[in-house]
Amino acid sequence: MHLKEELNKQQLKAVEFAGKHLLVLAGAGTGKTRTIIARAAYLIENGANPSKIQILTFTKKAANEIVERVKASLPQSNGRSLSGATFHSWCNQLIIKYPNLFGAASYTVIDPDDQLGLMKMVSGSHSDVYSKLRIKPQQLLDVYSYARNTKKNLTESIRILIYKGKEDKDTEYEITAMKPNVEILLRAYQKKKMEQRYLDYDDLLLVVSTQLKTNPEARKLLSQDLDYLLVDEMQDTNPLQWELLSPFIDICNLFCVGDDAQSIYSFRGADFKNVHQFKERVPNSEVFKLEKNYRSTQEILDISNWLLEKSPIDYKKELQSVRGDGEVPLLLNVSDEWQEANWVADEILKNYTDEDRRFSDHLILSRSQYYTKTLQAVFIRRKIPYVTYGGRKFLQAAHIKDLVSLLRIVNNPYDEIAWVRFLTFWEGIGEVRASRIMAVIIADEGKTDIPTLLQGAIPGKDGIKIAELYNAVQKEKGKVGKMVDIAYDAMSLGLAFRYRKDWIEKRKGDFPVLKLLANSYSSLGEFIGEGLLDNAEKMNGAPVLSESQLETDEEKDHVIISTIHSAKGLEADVCIVLNVSPKSFPSAWSLDDVDAIEEDRRVLYVALTRAKNRLIITRNTASIAAIHKKSIPSNNGQQSDDAETYFLTAIPDGLVRQETIGHDFKTVKDAPEPNKIDLSSGMDFS
DNA sequence: TGAGCTCTAGGCTAT
DNA sequence: CTAGAGCTCA
User: Where does the UvrD-like helicase C-terminal domain lie (predicted)?
Assistant: First the structure.
């Protein structure tokens, strides 16, 4: 096996592990992904049934990549039935596969937008309760989700999410006062979810884990399905995910990989106890370590190690480069986002023409999706091809949801959100009329077929048209691509009109992509559920499905712009980390919360360790100057300790070389010359 | 009742 | 920049 020669001793020991359960603690760049791939290949080569191996990762992209690479390393067709999924999509698949066991097969998976819509409806219908609270519907959902993911009670979840974990008397009093009202609203939300056969993201995990915990029949069925469970990014699993995994300790062999220094999802309830307490929690288990870094040059690891050393948490980790020395990282001070973006574009074009690097050798990382919009504007203008990872999901775009609403009501006639969306799509039907039509359909409880009801409830030609459309789509149930086609034929005119402002430029092109996506699913339920969980990759602003669907090498050569959270597992020759400024690292949201600050430190650590050869860190000159002034103590005595907490304060000499670009517009290519206007004209002061 | 307009406030990270 | 509130007109 050719993979074997590429493994070091530690990796090989993990890959060939013959015991029951294993946790591999693998620092950044130590070959974590390679090890999990080799493990899967090893198991298959040694007689394991690939259909009984399940790989679990955090993003669909990571899952696909691992599966593809395992298959590529095996003789043809050997690993065809190997599957990889996210926790969520795996649960969704199980729910569809065993409709009787989980009893939720024709349920509709709803995304955060739908959840918010539902919570708003609940808040509206309980306005007496809601008006007493100073909490927004989104916060109610956050509390609800946090409580379910962390298994903490409502009081604790409110304290942590709404009151930043405070424990003083006033806080206590307020929580006690509001809790009953929050409870009423959350219960009402739950009830509505059940009535309309909805599963939110957390429900997917809960439905499966509850069955596994309480029903021996479920454990028996799944033990026939599974021999090996391979879990990536173990440090980012939360208590709910642990609860889902733990029944499998008796059912199959666990092989988990993770790195506590890269735990960056605590806002979602991730708990690295799942890593630290692995040995105590899992009988018959062992823990191995991978320590040699193959990715980066020593200079890149020096600054990464330095960042981690500064933490009050002892990660017991110091990465050593196998590759040796290289370039000293560059710390670039810029005066604004446009200058930063233009400098980045210059750097990339220079590397492309002078240094024989490809666009795809560049990875640009940012804390938030939002921050990269300036950069994207500059890349488009300067014709630098790029893809973005992270951000809004493809199926969450308004025009896509319009079309999918029809598929959703075919899948689940109780889906009120989809009914309202579908009905109000048509001219002359607004929310009020849509609610009435929907009430008729739901009250009928499936006695009459839906096209007949629609025709009766909507007068004239429109009623016939809508009923026929519903009918036509329903007939193709099972062929998801065909359903999308029929829906698009009937709705494209309306869509073009509704989104006329940017239809041609932005939206129209999404529908062929939607069809491709739909074709890759074998059932409507999977498409609606999993499609939602699919991260859309965007190429110069337009969605693409995956790398493999691109034809030429030229199309595959593009810069990657990603949020740090979406960049886990990625690496690149040149890595540019944007805006590592005060108030950003750590983020202004994290101040006065030690855990949050430390999480931000790990976020930066993940970003820095993506670089193979060249690391460039940018930051804003003005915000650096601001923290050094420190001369404006605020009125309430809250001394700003930004300078203390800012991660790059007191960075030792030699760890980076600094460069500062001033307000010199000559370095900003294509900067428009400001027009001179006369604001004093048109006014007679006499 | 529906549709289209303007104005304002608030914006992280993710399945 | 975007969602949503509030307004006007048909």
Answer: 298-569
